[in-house]
């Protein structure tokens, strides 16, 4: 049995919030004495899985209301269970990659298409599936779904509910969710890639706080440690930057919430700020961002294997302003994408589903002849 301090309700999805509150005490979840052994964690995962998977690995919801509804409109994705054949559209999805901005996720979609050698049918191009929601962007590249989640935990929360329901309606089997983001490093240089080991809230609790029906509950903000290690193992000694694993602080704000001195308001001193950052560092925190606890809490509650991989845009021990040149920043932001692409390629290769590395050329058999044909055609324009 797992220690009571970290037990989550995995046996009854009709549990009351009160019950949940008693069974998951976040003050014990930060390793203060109650460091859970990995096999105990595995036991918990197995139990969560019973609640969240059908026998064929398809996603089961912990909400009995959904299957009783005539239709389920995924409003913020501009999709619906009866308006769209979600199984046909998304049934093959194995990886859901999320990041803050629509542009980053569109770039990632093109990048991953090349990396996994996925070919679009002739004459077609990637389309933003959720364009008409005007909220989030979504691109599908074979088994990879690339989705923007906006900034901060409320935005991620709304998206996660609908993405998990999408997985259910589409009958996706064992999807893996990965957040690809940016962060401020603590004691690490800009450009460092950081894989989150545990997501901590502003009070250093390894949980996310929800207010539901006026009651406060906590859900564990746990990520898959094995997946984190697998990702770390894919860092290459030839990478001209470090890839590390550590704890991530998730805040509700970029400025005062992250101890910045350069917001519109600031009622603390530079030494208060430094003392705070040093305290974080002493607690194993290596980066700060604004999405990881909700991402971890909802994937964990849904029994979905998940990871967070961010690149540091600066070392907060050296300052507050994000001021690296645009080209440098663009190159840094590609780094988590490269790591995640290595992982996706590895998994697909293991399943014999990697198409080879012909993606760069698409359907081009001979780049030399292709160029000649192109020149010939242009001459007749
Ligand atoms: N994102 C954050 O939340 N904080 C930073 O310092 C940089 C990116």
Percentage of β-strand residues: 15-25%
What is the spatial order of strands in the main beta sheet? 6-11-10-7-12
> In the CATH hierarchy, what is the architecture at level 2?
3-Layer(aba) Sandwich
What is the succession of H and E elements?
HHEEHEHEEHEEEEHEHEHEHH
Find the CATH superfamily.
Answer: Nucleoside phosphorylase domain
GO molecular function, one term: uridine phosphorylase activity
Family: Belongs to the PNP/UDP phosphorylase family.
Domain Nucleoside phosphorylase: 94-345
GO biological process, one term: uridine catabolic process
Briefly summarize what is shown.
The protein has one domain (47-358): Nucleoside phosphorylase domain (Rossmann fold).
What distinguishing features does this structure have?
10 helices; two-stranded antiparallel ribbon; 5-stranded mixed β-barrel; 34% helix; binds uracil; single chain; alpha/beta; disordered N terminus; 381 residues; 12 strands; Rossmann fold
Describe the overall structure.
This protein is an alpha/beta fold and 381 residues long. The protein has one domain: Nucleoside phosphorylase domain (Rossmann fold). Helix content is 34%, strand content 19%. It contains 10 helices and 12 strands. The termini are far apart. Uracil (URA) is lined by residues 182-184, 254, 258, 288-290, 313, 322.
Topology, please?
Blueprint: H1 17-23, H2 38-52, E1 73-74, E2 79-80, H3 86-90, E3 95-99, H4 102-115, E4 138-141, E5 144-148, H5 153-170, E6 176-185, E7 193-200, E8 207-212, E9 215-220, H6 225-233, E10 243-250, H7 270-282, E11 285-289, H8 292-301, E12 305-315, H9 326-350, H10 367-379
Parallel strand pairs: 3-5, 3-6, 6-12, 7-10, 10-11
Antiparallel strand pairs: 1-2, 4-5, 6-11, 7-12, 8-9
Helix pairs in contact: 4-9, 5-8
